[in-house]
Amino acid sequence: MSHEHECSHYLPELSDYLDGELSPELCAELERHMAECEKCRIVVDTTRKTIELYQSSSDSQKTPSDVKERLYKRLDLEGFLIQPDKPEANDR
Asked: Which of 27, 44, 61, 89 is the most buried (most CB within 10 A)?
């Protein structure tokens, strides 16, 4: 399995991993991968910190759009940003 393919294999599992709901076997596999993959460690650490910040903020506070855009760009997730002038993929 190529490294890029291996990384994309784990992305759908990150939420369960961070929530402590991943099977012990897959958790160990993901942690072995992260021990050698800085990019995945950064994604997990940043996502974890984002969740912590979100949970600690009040419901009335929204993340400014420029901050959200910078975060998504840094995480290489720009495709997940909803652009106000572009229809969502589900709207087609």
From this structure: 44
